[in-house]
Amino acid sequence: MTVPNRDTFTPGLELSRRFYTEAVRPLLEEAAPGVPHSARTLGHVVRKP
Question: Which helix or strand (DSSP H or E) is residue 4 part of?
Fold first, then answer.
């Protein structure tokens, strides 16, 4: 998993994306290859324009 620079702020949505991409998806592909799945954030997400 990529370790971010401690001097740089990383928004929560980006952290969630990285966690899914680097940790969750590989585990799912290994445990159940080819099985459809989805992922999303829960709660209110404020996006910058």
Answer: none
Per-residue pLDDT tens over the stretch 12-25: 888 989 999 999 99
Would you state the structure tokens that stand for residue 3, as one six-digit string?
Answer: 């370790």
**In this predicted structure, what is the pLDDT of residue 1?**
60
Task: State the Cα torsion 7-41-36-21 to the nearest 10°.
Answer: 0
Q: Which two tokens stand for residue 6?
A: 């401690």
pTM for this entry? 0.64
The answer to whether residues 3 and 23 touch, using CB atoms and an 8 Å cutoff, is: no
